[in-house]
Amino acid sequence: MHEIDFYLDFASPYAWLAFERLPLALIGHSYRVRYRPVVSAALIESQGQPVPMQAGPRQDWLRRHVSWLARAQEVDLQWPKGHPFDSRDLLRLALACADEEGLPNRYVTETIFRHVWQGGGDAVDPDRWQELARLLAPRRDPASEEVERCLRAHAEAASAAGVFDVPSMRVDGVLFWGLDALPMLRTCLDGDSSPVAPDAG
Predict the structure, then answer these.
(1) Do residues 182 and 4 lie in contact, with contact meaning Cβ atoms separated by under 8 Å?
(2) Please, which residues bridge with residue 188 across strands?
């Protein structure tokens, strides 16, 4: 069985699309996915890189590209109001619902993703957040220092594992970044070693 770490940030539309497509990429393989919420901006900054500004022409392209991908992949996606937004409250909620391993399960992860990327609402509206929290019934207080420490620890562990942005998948010690890496991940699971190391030319 393959153990797959899926690094995500609920504010990333590419993470939502990759979350939806991952099961299709893994058909025929035995696997378990561990969902690891992280603050993507913290990951980027940990590598000494500036966080890309999501405004102007860049944001216009992002919306067109993501909307096209969602239609092409038949994934339900409506842009939330006020995107981009600070996703920390949603990430903390996911970790407050964590299991014995300290990770949210697929149901929790999917529910929060759908809260953000379906319906076109404000993802961080306090009333909607409270409704989401009531639905998920977290085991711990999302606003607690314990959960905040857990979120920071997830980012530090991800950075130490070489993760530099989301969505990222790590399987059998090999990192795959981005929605478009799913076919590459599949090739690796099928036994092709070429995705493991770059071509030396």
Answers:
(1) no
(2) none
Give CA–CA dist 198/190, Å, rounded. 18
For residue 87, which amino acid is it? S
Partnered with residue 50 across adjacent β-strands are none
Are residues 61 and 32 in contact, defined by beta-carbon separation less than 8 angstroms? no
CA distance 165 to 177: 7
CA separation (Å) from 103 to 8, 94, 127, 149?
A: 12, 8, 25, 14
Task: Give the number of other Cβ atoms within 10 Å of residue 29's Cβ.
Answer: 13
Q: What is the pLDDT of residues 145-168, one digit of tens each?
A: 999 999 999 999 999 999 999 999
68 close to 38: Cβ distance less than 8 angstroms: no
Query: What pLDDT, in 10s, does the model give residues 3-12?
Result: 999 999 999 9
For the stretch 196-201, contacts whose Cβ atoms lie closer than 8 Å and that sit 24 or more positions apart, written own/partner, are none
Identity of residue 81: K
What is 112-128 written as a DSSP string?
HHHHHHSS--BTT-HHH
pTM of the model: 0.92
- What interhelical angle do 126-136 and 88-96 show, nearest 10? 10
Contact 140, 85 (CB under 8 A): no
44-65 pLDDT, tens per residue? 776 665 555 566 788 889 999 9
